[in-house]
Amino acid sequence: MAVKIRLKRHGKIRTPFYRVVVADSRTKRDGRVIEEIGKYHPTEEPSLIEINRERAQYWLGVGAQPTEQVLALLKVTGDWQTFKGLPGAEGTLRVKEGAAEAAAAVKAAEDEAELRKAKASEAKAEKAAEEAKAAAEAKAAEASEAPAAEESADEPEAQA
Predict the structure, then answer these.
(1) Predicted structure pTM score
(2) 14: alpha, beta or left, given left = phi > 0 and alpha = psi -120 to 50?
(3) Which residues sit opposite 65 in a β-bridge?
């Protein structure tokens, strides 16, 4: 069976996006596939290219032939150079500039939320400790008042 790594088209008219798939060469373009190994969104700026490196290397290793378009994508991501043992395996893939900043902002927000939760639980524990201490003091005061009340109750009987 001849296996190809090719693009499977999705999306509306004039807004395509593709899945990088492994399929039998005899199937239709958008037909049954063996495995999906990535995504390609050409309309974004810069184009989104996500390919599962491990699976791409496996399929190339067992003899799957990439189409011209997929070969170009594999060269951009550096997977083709890795497979062939050529220099430049890091690829030339561009990433959105805001993506790294957004990820850092999300991480900072998560850290801040974690700190708030820790402070809130700390304050709750302190409050519970204070309430327990106050309850213990009240119990001790009540216990010390109870014998005094019994003594004062005994005194009137003694006078009678």
Answers:
(1) 0.57
(2) left
(3) 4
AA identity, residue 50: E
Count the Cβ atoms, other than its own, within 10 Å of residue 30: 13
Q: Which residues pair with 50 in a beta bridge?
A: 39
Q: What is the tens place of the pLDDT at every residue in 34-75?
A: 999 999 999 988 888 899 989 999 999 999 999 999 999 998
Return the structure tokens found at 93: 């893939």
Residue type (1 letter), 159: Q
Q: Which residue has the tokens 């594999």?
A: 74
What's the burial of 18, exposed, middle or buried (CB within 10 Å: 0-12/13-18/19+)? buried
Q: CB count, 10 Å around CB of 22? A: 21
Instruction: Using DSSP, state whether 62 is helix, strand or coil.
Output: coil
Q: What is the DSSP letter of 47?
A: P
